[in-house]
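User: I've been going back and forth on whether these two constructs are worth ordering. Before I decide, could you fold them both?

Assistant: Sure. I'll take them in the order you sent them. The first construct and its structure tokens:
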Amino acid sequence: MQTIRRFLPLLLILLVGSSFAQNCTLRIGTNLAGPADWGAEWPFVNIMKYSRNWITFNSEWVAGGENPWDTGVLDQIPLDENGYPLELPYTVAGTETTQVVRTVWANTNTLKEGIYTVLYDGDGQIEIDFDGQILTNDPGRITFQMTRNNNILALAIMESTESNHIRNIRVLLPGTENTYEENPWTDEWLEKLEPFKGLRFMDWGQTNNSALQDWEYRPQMDDFTYTMNGIPYEWMIEICNLKQADAWVCVPHEADDGYIHEMARLFRDGLDPSLMLYAEYSNEIWNWMFDQTHYLFNNGDQGVEWPERIVPFIQNTLDIWTEEFAGQMDRLTRVVGVQASWQDVSNRVMFNMAPGTFDAFSPASYFGLTDNGYAALETLGSAATAEDVLLWAREAMLKESWIWMQDQTESIGQALDIPMIYYEGGQHLTPNPFGSEQPYAQALMDAQTHPGMYDLYIEWYDSLATLVPEGDSTLLMNFSFISSKDGKYGSWGVLESQFDQHPPYRDSAPKYQAILDYQCERSSRIEDATHYPISISLDAAYPNPFNAVTTLSFQLDRSEHVQISVYNPLGQTVALLLDNPMQTGIHHIRWDAGHLTSGLYIIRLTAGSVTRTQKCLLLK
């Protein structure tokens, strides 16, 4: 095992690389994490929108009673149209005493410490508990100090007057009371979101297991929280317009035709016409862990085999979007999602769609672990390390994921002459079985911030870029933006915190750093900049492929001793191009490879503890 590990940083050698980051062959957007009180992504300065649904509890302690945390009688308390109780305390038959409500945020470790402000309309009494300590309490306005002591914050409505009930509660992050109306977005979230030029709203819309059917009951801007029904479409449109980012939306699987028409019109009329809109029916409708798959199986034509049975649902949705975008089809990309690892299912969906009614097909582009990898980790148990995980993840990338992507390209993309885009992608390092406690869980989490993860991401992106026809580009939606590490259900975020993580990201967030370094604007931005580079990087050789002579460019954000070596596919050194101290700035080196044979070569730059690699092809 130790011998194998020594070669983990080497690049994938089965594919030919070129200047993908420079010509935007692979454009990277991101899925946004869904609204959750236990999450780590806080887009709104008003965190009330990410609070948990109300929990009912006794209005006073009952001596000798059970006094449960949640009495479970919210359905018996009258609420207004936005979800606020009309009167509290409220008498509910069968409970120990009158009832009041609380909400919580169960991950304050990812929130800012400091002084929060609570604003509200109406008459009544609000209490703050656990990690919040009230500083001032005036009608309609409360301030409290929030610290990360218990990893939970609670807000309770203890009294609410029936004639003027408490409503429109805003719980504002420190320093935002005077600006939240004109700027509802968290500055740190916007800053970290900047590199992504496309946003997929699958989780924002709570697409998986959605119960939405009628347009009347879609999420509304004034809902007291968005954690129950999802974030309103209006916010999706606003953030895309603000960021000038393309939008990818998912239509709820039970939505009736009226809902689909209204949704299409809202995005058609609200989204900046210069932005692209990607429309997809639901999400992973072949994945049996989701309600939508069972719904389609049970409600589709029982005389038609599965998965062909799901095709009419996709077809109907895309046809409605086509109707609504008549005359503006250049703004719309109609997407059919497929299953990356099961080519037969993908084929039987795609080849039963009506020709000309879709614009792209979309598998996920994950790499995870093979059966051999899981067996190795199970043998190692708690002794497994991040390096073990990355070693087996790379094996899965080469032996499974890459083969699946090639099959999808050949079987569908080339056969139908349509682009392959990716609705999700990145590492998929979860235990086996999914959701279980395994002794190697810590290694799965440690791998997320190991330097080798950066190399795997760059390697994977370079590989996917080779599947794109020359002169074209494609879109990959990273999964996901910000979330905490988890050894049971996966560590999906490329960041763990929007408040606590800062550049340089190579050590704390290598997945995010890989995306930053791969963005297509990177090279031109560095070349045109009037300031020094902000990282150490090695650009792809130009020209590439080349005949005898090519030029290498690299950037240094600090002075370092730099070594640039060239290897053949066997890992043998064929040239030492540089081995000198170098100053901060942009540098270029000419490489004459006229004495070498045609083939693939690997260029490695080492600057201090930092290593960067590129691939190039010599053709004579």
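The second construct, handled the same way:
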Amino acid sequence: MPKTKKSQKPQHWYTSDRPIQTKRHDLLMRTEFAANLADDIRTWSGDDSLVIAIYGSWGSGKSSLKNLICESLEKSGKNVIPTLEFNPWQLSGTGNIPSAFFRDLQITLRGSGPKQDIEKRSKVLKAYSTTLDLTGTAFSLTGKVLPFVAVPGGPIVEAIGKGIKSAGSAIKKGSEALNAKSEAEQKSSQELKCEVAKMLERMPQPILVIIDDIDRLTTDEILQVFQLVKANADFPHLIYLLLFERDIVTNALGRISGDHGVEFLEKIIQVAYHIPHAPIQAVQKVLFHGLDSHIDEPAIAKRWDKHRWSELFADGVASYFQNLRHVYRFLASFSFHVRHHKKERSFEVNPVDLIGLETLRVFEPAVYERLSSAKSFLTRSSGMPFSVPISQAVMDEAISQIAAHASTGKEATVKSILKLLFPPITSEFENNRSIGHHLHTWLRELRVCHGDLFDKYFTLSIPNYDISQAELDHLLELAADVSGFVKACEALKQRGLLKTAFDRLEAYKEHIPLNSMPSLISALCNLSDGLPKRVPGLLEQDIGMYFSRLVYFGLRRQLNKKERFEVLKNALENSSGLALAIDLVSNEERVNDRVSRGHEFLIGEADLEELKLICTKKLRKACQTTLFRSSPRLKVYLWRWRSWTSDKEVREWVALHSSTTQGAIWLLTKLLNESHSYGREHTIGYSIQLAEVEQFADVKTLNSFIIDVDESCLCEDERIAVREFRKALKRRAEGKPDDIAQQELDDADINE
């Protein structure tokens, strides 16, 4: 797309669809054509009238061309041709088109020709109009052809229909109208018309009558206009310039000519031109200038994909921009949506996708209206992480049904646009696994084909359960600011959007600047201890898992393991958090399953011990706080502490805090296991394994503290923990395994 100079003030693309007024605004290079036609009009010296037509479709610029012709005539010199611009569309539906025409013609004649004729011309014209009204009932429009009217002295139309009759009705009001009626009753219409013709002959120059927007009228009104022209076409020194879409007018004239509208029109029009074809390059230049004025901003430009835009434009969008009216209609709408989606220094959607959707919305509304309800097809997503695959045959049929609502001849174009906007509908993505490989890319690019972003394009709002792209961009900018990042996350946490934010950040895990990683790791460590307790779901990700992945994939781009180690070491030493630090170091331990599957470790094994020492210091410091004792991750901390130091150190700390009944109950709640089952209902199971308890405390000692505890006096968590501990003691006494799952397997074998 060509670049344009950025203006100080943003251009407003709302338009009332007004034609241009001067050649300074001529973008379609029609000034020369207009000047040549103006010269022909100005130099015409015939004694008869002349009817010129300019044919062009709606939106092709007929009115703009008319204004260029008028401008050229006005600048031609002293002898400027008097011009009557008559627009019947402004009177459509009023029934006053004929009377308004005669009134305007009368006004124009007052300012032209010999002064001594002005009053007489006005009087005679009124009388002529009135006589048409008096005799107009003799002719009916339907199914009849007007006889061709020759020059003065030839056959004269005695009546030109019901439409002309209304002209006299308007003129009859007032004393002047009564006088006109009196004179009309004394002379025939032929006599009055001859008088008008003689006075027009004495005019020093012709009068130009411009009639525009004829094709916007009703059929009956189109007939009225052409009856006016035909009835007066034999007046000398009148030049008619008619502008309309040819097919619309010939169809209307066909009603009174036995479907011979073309031939009938040719009898009226003496010289006809087609509006010069608008060079498609000129139209596209205006479009590109308008788009550039919006896209040439950092927040939007950074997501501008030239390759995708080239494909979208060439294979679909270009065909909808054939004239400037198309361009201005689109830019007015696009301008609104750009302003709506621009938040601070961010842009909420993909600009290329927005152009594609706006093209459909403006030019294919019936197609656009069906897109929002087709989200599951267009994104191949039913809202579940693993949706049921949609076969390509079903997909193709669904897209065909949508494209069937396209305008005539545009079905293939619409399909092409949809495939470029929504790659999941193509056969390449029939397998859900293929979509999974692209989801993060689509999310970063803010593509409409991503299920999480689709609704933004259609609802034009961000629901309170979602995060805006502006907030996400701000969070990414704060990655190098420990304090700022933590504060922003705490604010999101208060709104219940922390998980949503990190779900989106997952797509950026390999795109965060390396120089921001030390600060980001420290910030994540500080946040990790305050994460809400995870509510398990069948496929739900723990927020802590997002933290670990951001660190792992972010650091993995640093190829030097020693550099990675230094970043981790400094981040852990300079942060107060414990949970993420423990997870990061634990993930670097060379356990069998990681080694066997070829897991890429971030640091060398020789450096791992130093990180363990840092975490051990953190554990020893944290264990002196009440937050440590109340942490839902206490069991993990105890396991790591025991693994990285000694069994004795951990058991001494546990014994110190579990040497009372309340302390024993507290320890059991922290060692309570949960299991979740997802069938028709989500059920939760609880258990305590004595072998696990024995890693940290003496089972008999704990039992001595709780043996006489009344469970009814405990809170729910404490009651469950005590009950499961007693069950575990009973199983051991009966010689059964501590592991309930193993016990269930043994019971099944016995039953078989």
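Notes on the second construct follow. The beta strands are 50-55, 83-86, 207-211, 238-244, 271-274, 342-343, 346-347, 673-678, 682-687. The chain has four domains: 34-274, 280-459, 464-643, 646-752.
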